[in-house]
Predict the 3D structure of the following.
Amino acid sequence: MGNKQTIFTDEQLDAYQDCTFFTRKEILRLHGRYHELAPHLVPMDYTNDPECKIPPALIVNMPELKENPFRNRIVESFSEDGQGNLSFNEFVDMFSVLSETAPRELKAIYAFKIYDYNVDNYLCKEDLEKTLNKLTKEELTPEEVELVCEKTIEEADLDGDNKLSFADFENMITRAPDFLSTFHIRI
Amino acid sequence: MPPKKKSDLAISVEEVGMEVDATDSGSEDEARRRSRNRRVKPQRKVKCVSDDDEDEEEDEAPRKRGRKKRAKPQDSDEDDEEDKRSVKNKGSKAPRSRAAKVEREDDSEDERETKKKAGKAVPKKEKEEKNLEKKGNVKGKEEKEKDAEKNKKKKKGKLSSSSSDSSSSDSAEESLSEGEIEALKEQVEEKKQLIATLRNKPWRMKRRLLMLKEAQDFVEKFEGALGKGKGRKFYAFKVMMTKKLIKFKRDFENFKTACIPWERKIKEVESHFGSSVASYFIFLRWMYTLNLVLFGFQFGLVVLPEIMMGLPYGSIPRKTVPREEQATAMDLSVLLDFGGYSQYSFLFYGYYNNEKMIGLLKFRLPLSYLLVGIGIFGYSLMVVIKSMARNANEGGDGSDEGDFIFSWKMFTSWDYLIGNPETADNKYASITTSFKESIVDEQENQKDENIHLRRFLRVLANFLILWCLGGSGYLIYFVVKRGQMFAQMNKEDLTWFQKNEVEFVMSLLGLVCPPLFETIAELEDYHPRIALKWQLGRIFALFLGNLYTFLFALFDDVNEKLQNEKLIKNATEWALQEYQANYTAYFNTTAVPPQVVNPADVIRGPCWETAVGIEFMKLTVSDIQVAYLMILIGDFGRAVLVRFLNYCWCWDLEAGFPSYAEFAISDNVLGLVFNQGMIWMGAFYAPGLVGLNILRLLSSMYYQSWAVMACNIPHERVFKASRSNNFYMGLLLLVLFLSLLPVVYTIMTMSPSFDCGPFSGQDKMYNVVMDTINQDLPSFISNIFSYATNPGVIMPAVLLMVLAIYYLNSVSKGYQQANKDLKKKMQIARDEEKNRRNNKDSTNQVMKDLEDLLPNKSLIPPPAEEEEETPIDVVVSKGKKSLKTKQGAKQDGVNLERDVSLAAPNPRAPVTHGPRPRERPPVNTRGPLPGPGRGRGRGGPPR
């Protein structure tokens, strides 16, 4: 306990608990993981909110993310600069959204951001193609990719602008039976 | 605290005077001015000291001051500062000069802060002025957001304060009017609500933390102030208690999550094998808790009282091993067959005494035995149905399943839990194949030529499988019959195989048939998911058929035993009569002393209940043995062989033929379900069975999770966890119902053995309940009961229930219809809204949040600065974003450069976005509104 107390103050821990879906212990563990990623960069003592960011290359190599085809996008979406440099706050934020207890709406927002490769708040065909190629390791032929993307847009696009807005995406994803069970990472 | 705050507010109103109307302009505007205000501070400081009423500055200065004042209450992070100021203000009526002084102090304070912020920024970022400015912008932006929120609140507060405290005297401030209190309360509630839902907001962490702190401070500040005099203390106490309660709840929640067993283990498995395998373990854990409760009932209400308060072993015949068995009663082989001492122990029905009340507590054991036996079913039914309903709620309805085949595949097929390269590879493969399948489906939707062949094959496959099922059923029946024949023979003559034939054959069938079915199912060429359901259904039918065949054979056996028992009963009665007659004749007295016989020598009946219990016990044990051996040989042995023989083998064993075993989820789940069915069925006749099952589940949790991690590779065909869960539960429910039938049948129709078990001497088992009702409860209850069991009452009751079911069914159908309509309406509304939104700026809060979450490009180090080179899309989106989100932040004079650079892509915007109406409005609105403000801002000299 004595060791833990020095990392965060009680108020900080409470604040984190209010802001995330984690318990105290999990936040401490998250800090442990964060610290582990770059022991020379990250201080053990977080009581006075030190500013430090971990580059995406380190985060992406976490076992939880390593195999994920969207790992770079995940990290980028949660970083404030869009480059994937994560501060501890953003790091916690990421795993909070991806935790089991986060509500569907919240997850949908971030899922949208993750799949939005060119960051224009629309999922256009290029985004879908990239997503698909990541998912299948580019094993589909270009024609097949084309077909799937067209079909996807056809299915989910409600306003007929040939790209998916967030409303389209949300409408589609809230009905997906597996979204909640697959869009989460345990840490 | 509130009075201070209010005096402050009052002053600001007073001072601002004519500027009040300006307050109502858009919050962004205001915020922009505010932050500009900061930049211009040094200059203004001088101004304030020299003269406030300078003519040439009359346009500028008051506004600034007004801005300043407005801004001040907004800086709630700087509470101490605020307090200091308000303390100063409180003393007097705050004359103008004094206010100016205070203001100056504030300014310096503010400035210090800006410097601090800037200072922080400098070493981190480049030394370029531009970048520094950007950093400032970011900060400004952040504050702006929160200010926007705050402003609403403040405005409200300001309004109320200006209306009531127009005199702004200190004494008046002490007492708050009712309306204010209400408003405050409302705000406090609002803030509390915010704190509670903060984690659901799609904001950046930093912003969330800020908001939290702010809200907490606000609540802290005003909560105590609500209520006066007597009520005040109580209110404070209440607030404190709620705080404590929240803390306690949180701690308890933490504690609770820490108490969930095997969470880490399951997580580990989950991360390696995806959620489908984990779903089995979660099911196992669920089953374990269910059994733990059942065990609690069984052990606490039946076993323990009998052990503690009942007669000890050896006191009466049913608790004693018969003389002829005593020699071998302690042999291990006998004990393992549940013969000998274990047969006459508390594990089985026969051990329990029929004494109506036992011990000091007058515990009615027979009654409790019956009620627990039925209660187990009741409880299990309740739990299963409850969890099914919960799952159904969670899962939502799969009404429009066909609508989003590709979208769902695209966006939800990747399981983010996967953390193992092998699993990931498998997942890639399975996703690719599933896409290919869908593509093929899509392409082949129109043409299907070989339909006749396929139909023929499917019929053939079903025929084969039915044949298999029938064969296995017959085999079991045959074996059970043979087993009965063997049971008549002398035990020493039988081989081990002959003794355990039934269990052996059943386990063998369980092993052989599922793969056989799978091979046959290849013929059918179904979609994998449908095929899996068929497979599950078939295995289920097999198990069920086996179980029921076993049961029917058992009933034959029982009936035979009952006949046998009658003979023995007659014989014993006859012997007793003879003894009495002889005694009377010999001693010539009618007072016959009871016969003294060693309990081991008493002639006893076959006690069919114990026999049934033993059968179930044996079946369970052999099931466990087979399952564990299969894991050891089929998984572990195979893994070891593949792993080590691979060094000296002609082909690649790991990738080629034998490979490692997959974790067969469906088989395991079905095994678990059937095991549970056996427990439910057998628990009535063998109270120890539940305890055995607990041990089995416990060990299997560790054993299987080890085996999975050590020697299995993930399933190639991914069995979706979310939907199948209710499928498992449905199977469980079916099994529960099917195992309920025979037990209830025996309880209601069979007469219990005359010399063993808690119901001995009764005609029917349920007579225990009747006796209790008739004899031990007040007579009116028995009257009620006799009325209730009257057919005249039962028939209408059944009718009523049928009607109720019909009614509820139609109601639920109506709801479904309404649901569908609502969905349609929502769809339409959404479309409409979208159309509307296409022509307007985004009004949706979520959309705004989304925009806000776009990465802040200004934080990117210089390399990303070349916007001009990036594709047009990005540039435009950037332009748009900065227009939207940074309007408030970029009003500074120094920002000129940036404005210019922003202006550059602008001319292009209409061209690229011509067809897209969504982009236009921001451009339009931007024109007139912030124009003048920025103009002035530029006019000010840069720092």
About this structure: Residues 104-182 of chain A form a domain with the Recoverin; domain 1 fold (CATH 1.10.238.10). The mean pLDDT of chain A is 82.
